[in-house]
Amino acid sequence: MSARIGFIGLGNVGGKLAGSLLRNGCDLMVRDLNRQAAAPLLAGGAAWGESPRQMAQKCDIVITCLPNAAASAKVMEDPDEGLLLGLVAGKVWAEMSTTDEAEVHRLGELVAATGASPIDCPVSGGCHRAATGNIAIFAGGDRSTFETVLPVLATMGRRILHTGPLGSASVLKVVTNYLATANLLSLSEALVTAKAAGMDLNTTYEAIRISSGNSFVHETESQVILNGSRDINFTMDLVVKDMSLFQSLADRAELDLELAPAMLDIFLDGQDRFGAREWSPNIIRRLEEQCGLDILAPGFPAEIVDDEPEAPGHEIAPPPVAPADLIDRERYPIDEPGPRRSEVIDEVRAALAADGCAVIPGFLNPAGLAALLGEAQARSHLAFYPEVKEANVYLNDADPSLGPDHPRNRFMARTNGFVRSDAWDESTHSWRLYHWPALMEFLAECLGKDELHIYDDPVSNMILNVQAPGEEFNWHFDTNEFTITMLLQAPEVGGEFQYIPDLRSPSDERIDDVNAVLDGDRSQVRMLALEPGDLQFFLGRFALHRVAPNTGEDRKRLLLIMSFSEKPGAVGSVERIRRLYGKVTDMHRAAAAEPVRADALLD
What we know:
16% strand
């Protein structure tokens, strides 16, 4: 492995992960507030990092594995020697701490601003597996960054799971730690109750191990409980931190949980009784003291050692989900020729001919909607919002030569945002559905086209329209002849789709009619209240349309937009892409010299 790796934070887990890197021949630089923690690694050939800034300058990938979010923020943002000061394009920051999703996003945005790439990759499986390189690792970030760091992660861990966008790994780490805590508390109650009922604890351990009550926590922590050492290399204050992070997730989702608050209270009490740095399995002492019993048994180890041979790590993935599994195929068998498919196509064509808009209600099945919505919600924080909050109907610049009353010089509020297409990759359900040949064939037939192509634009081919409470998307025309959208989440109030079909034509801008709408004439406006899971066809090149303000209090309107073109090579204009999505690529600049345009409209 040619990359030089920096590792900051050599505690119970971090020191062992860094040890795996060094043991496997990695070029390693390490740092910890306690230099003694680095002594074994330095003796083994690792270099010492003088500061986070220096490490970022000298290393290709810098890993932080720290006890809490405040420690990570200090390492990253120190005004003199912070990691951010040394990051540049091509480098990667990998956060292996168990931390808050929101803080990962915040620091990740600062990392991205330097040109470097962020990824969160916490571990799960215990210190004994961290020591042998057999631990599991979750990784959240874009696919290209994940593939960059995968060889490094596979050196530290056995099973590597790409969990989705940045922050997703931290969410799942907190969720799995919550479950481990629930296991520990329930096992404590089970062991004490079994002892009080007169059961032999060796037999009890084995009964649980071979039964439906078994778990990873039982096979590890129950053993050190019964030994009496209670040493699992994890302390009560860390459980309190993890449970607090889990509760914060629930609070942000406005969930009224029952178990989690009680579990947190139990560990807060244990921390008060026995000390913040007491081993977490000693939470059983609360029950031992209550009933006057010692939960001990002979023959169990004082610490858990991983006896599984170290093996090369590898990526694992959830079972693949076919795009067809995302849609309601009983109602819409779009990938099977037959009378029902033909019937749906005829219905769409008739609606488009009538007013340029057609809806297939409930196109996504409930599981498919949940999957796509989850991906959208996880990415909605990435929405680009331009500094200028006004736009004209052509979504381009004013033209003083046309006069102040021309629609091009009349600007309205536009406060919605867009998540760019590069936030999704081939591992996502949304991407696979968008690229599904059967869907493209079906859409082409509905639109009366010989064939459709994925829109070549690398920024805007599949995007998410985000409309938070108070936001709106002004009256405008599309650059594409047609647009395919799926509503994933509706606002509580407002957010209706409003449109006037065929307000202009390829040869006539109909300026007076556009101005009439802008002046308040709604006599021709049609309104559509979409439901989540609906698939919408819309001929927006000639239809003036908008999304009414989201007047609800909390919920965002989330609309997935899938763009296709009749001819390959279609790319958005440089200025329009910059204005709407905040990112222009070399492909846009090159395409500007040879535009693929079907008309000469204002845009």
